[in-house]
Amino acid sequence: MRNILIAAAAVSAIAAPAMAQSVQSPTYYGALGYSQLDGSQGDLGAVTGRLGAKFTPNLGVEGEVSVGVKDDDFRIGTVDGSIKHEYDAAAYVVGTLPINDQFELFARGGYGYSKIKSELGGLSRTADGDSWNYGAGANFYFDAQNGIRGDWTRRDFTDSDAGEVDVYSVSYVRRF
Fold first, then answer.
1. 3-state DSSP assignment of residue 5
2. Tens digit of pLDDT for each residue in 130-171?
3. Contact at 8 Å (CB) between 167 and 37?
4. pLDDT tens for residues 57-66?
5. 133 contacts: CB under 8 Å, gap ≥ 6
6. What is the pTM (predicted TM-score) of this model?
């Protein structure tokens, strides 16, 4: 048994440098931008931050957090009301198709959580919901590190009466 363990350790020591050469180190990136949320209950705006890692040129993961900055005001009769985007967070698996060194297309799918607040005539109500998210977009890089990103994401909320929201985003992207 001891000889088997020693042999396994020796083979591992020989194979480790070969494995290290074939495994790519991840490419990390961050993005900061504006997102427009278009839903049946209102049009809202948010500042969105993302952090991601690409493990291969075609596959990675991404986390996203948004905080509301644009409310949707409305009036029912003589009573004023508003809908406010409090925040949301989501995680995605991202598939990328590099076109050249500067331009790439991507598709992403994941799961998210959103929280909104509505006010009408001094009364307020908070609603939250989980959603399955999917979308597509493109990155254009000016140089090796800096670029812009445009994307669309559909949020399909798991609660049957919550509906769907389309999110359109434009962001600055930085690779590091």
1. helix
2. 999 999 999 999 999 999 999 999 999 998 677 899 999 999
3. yes
4. 999 999 999 9
5. 90, 92, 108, 109, 110, 111, 112, 153, 154, 155, 156
6. 0.83
